[in-house]
Design a protein that fits this description.
Elements: E1 2-7, H1 12-24, E2 27-33, H2 42-51, E3 54-57, E4 75-78, H3 85-90, H4 92-111, E5 117-123, H5 128-134, H6 157-176, E6 179-185, E7 188-189, H7 198-207, E8 213-216, E9 221-222, E10 225-226, H8 227-239, E11 247-250, E12 256-257, H9 258-268, E13 275-278, H10 293-299, H11 307-324
Parallel strand pairs: 1-2, 1-4, 2-3, 4-5, 5-6, 6-11, 7-10, 8-13
Antiparallel strand pairs: 9-12
Helix pairs in contact: 1-2, 1-8, 4-6, 7-11
Amino acid sequence: MKKVLILGGAGFIGMNITKYLAENREYSITVADNFSRGKLDEDLLDLVNRFGVNIIEGDFTLPSAFDQLRKDYDYVYMLASVVGVNNTLEIPHEIIRINTALIFNTLEWLKNSSVKKVIFTSTSECYAGTIEAFGYKVPTPEDIPLSIQDIGHPRFTYAVTKMLGESGFLNYSRKCGFECTIVRYHNVFGPRMGFKHVIPHLVQRFLANENPFLIYGHDQTRAFNYITDAVEGTVLAMESDSSNGEIYHIGDSTEITIEQLIKTTGSYLGFTGTYENAPTYPGSVGRRCPDITKARTQLGYSPKVSWEDGLKITLDWYKDFYQSGKQSFEKAFETPTHHLKNG
């Protein structure tokens, strides 16, 4: 039975990878997390009870936390990081400190382990500056140069740490005897994704009867990737021998505008008011859509859930959550109006 470690396994994508592996593979699975969002939630507790998933709690920004782990995992999924637009604007120094420490400590632990393969999860944010400054093509393939437009802007601190991680894991793997694959996520969404993201925030605003409803960045485009497809792509990248040393864009190739996303959400939630275009968020790229040809041809990756179907499922979950009166496990997404630029 293969031994699997999921660092950051209590987060949105990590928990869904844990669920997928527990239900579809005969693996011994360990989830390691600091549980910063609160206690073990009911979804993860269910996996512990049904499948014997092991739980390790620790602050992995400290090297000593890694002493709790085995040294002989077959697969390690490295998802642990701090993310979120609000976080980058409010605590950019903590984004740098936490994510850098997680990356470095994991690499140093791997150097002295017998782990066979690692997936490092990265982001399309790494090349956002390239699209804006140099006009590279969209949909965008993996060989695009990585670029930050304004290195001093707090919005880009998350992307900078992910660039560090990509370089670190690829280069350590070559020198330290383990295999490594990088996956770059593109707007992954779904139920339980947290509350510091656009879609949950839209539900909150519509339920609050905001009218006129402001559309920030109405003409910007994105390609949304439903969580089950993102998970399948990640596992395919891990379990394929041909993926070693490679980078894959994991996402969906259907590009829509933010206006289309918001008006579809409003229609589904019964909004009958008016819309008004508003300034965009700072550092937000105008277009983003991945070319997933490499993942299709090399991994057999094929997204199955359309953005419309995934959106309906996600909206239902958040609508039920907010209307039930439950308390979120983290502070909600806030529109950073004091950072917005004109136009």
